[in-house]
Write a structure and sequence with these properties.
With 249 residues, this protein is of the alpha/beta class. 43% of the residues lie in helices and 18% in strands. The chain has eight helices and seven strands. The chain binds guanosine-5'-diphosphate and magnesium ion.
Length: 249
């Protein structure tokens, strides 16, 4: 039986680090879109400010006056995007959770296509396939690690590392996520597959950043991603060998 029954109770969850330049416009856009959506009965926007050094935190707090659905969380110091997203996910209450970045690169207008795909598949997760607008090096890293993760999981996902996902809330909140830095998209996909949840994929619009800077430190980011993929591979091996307890779906 499909878990999706319209209209949904939706939580949007996102990390934010030094996004002061674009954040207000991004939240206004999400809010305008969501209030007009007949497929969305009620919604909340949970954004974790990851110890930003700019006005991100103050902007979030001020915007709660205009948008009662906005629920900011604040880290005192910078912990990394995954830690911030995990805190946001843990605070969500919706039946379905839309994972986003807060830099405006993902268009919330893709939501109806994700819902349509979920309704066709009857599954618990949808992933937005990006038409890549990132720098070539970042694209290569994403392609290579996606290929490795697909091999490890025996999956054939076209965009393993896309951060834009719509996931059944109880399943997402139970994933036991551990990543801290920039590997959150890879980890969520891997943990879903680990529990037998096979995401349906949907082509989405992915825009270049218009404000702020991607703080992806290229070389360190690539090294961390490589180590993280090794961890995923080792973890899957230990699960297969019954050396680790397999998490229940
Ligand atoms: N780069 C970076 N982004 C963070 C951090 N904490 C939270 N984020 C958020 O994570 C998301 C993705 O970051 P971004 O730099 O755009 O990565 P990219 O899209 O992969 O180039 C954005 O919403 C950031 O605001 C952090 O410590 N560093
Ligand atoms: Mg980005």
């Amino acid at each position: 039986m499909s878990l999706l029954s319209l209209p949904i109770r939706l939580s949007v969850a996102a990390p934010a680090y030094n996004e002061a330049a674009g954040l207000e416009a991004v939240i206004a856009d999400w809010h305008t879109f969501l209030v007009a959506q007949s497929a969305v009965a009620e919604f909340e926007i949970v954004i974790c400010n990851d110890g930003s050094k700019d006005a991100t935190g103050a902007i979030l707090d001020r915007l709660t006056l205009s948008y009662p659905q906005l629920r900011p969380l604040h880290f005192a110091g910078n912990q990394g995007a995954a830690a911030a997203l995990n805190a946001a996910i843990a605070a969500t209450k919706g039946d379905w959770v839309l994972l986003m970045d807060s830099d405006g690169q993902f268009a919330i207008q893709n939501l109806p296509d994700m819902l349509a795909a979920l309704s066709r598949s009857g599954g618990q997760a949808a992933i937005g396939i990006r038409k890549k607008k990132d720098a070539a090096f970042a694209q290569f890293g994403s392609w290579a690690s996606g290929l490795a993760c697909n091999l490890v999981h025996g999956s054939r996902l076209k965009d393993f590392n896309s951060a834009f996902k719509l996931v059944w809330g109880p399943a997402l909140r139970g994933l036991g996520l551990e990543a801290k830095g920039m590997n959150y998209s890879t980890e969520v996909t891997s943990r879903l597959l680990e529990r037998g949840i096979i995401p349906v994929e949907v082509e989405i619009a992915h825009r270049p950043r218009t404000t702020g800077v991607s703080s992806m430190k290229l070389v360190r980011g690539a090294a961390h991603r490589f180590l993280f993929v090794l961890y995923i591979a080792l973890r899957q091996l230990l699960l297969r060998l019954n050396i680790l307890v397999r998490p229940q779906p």
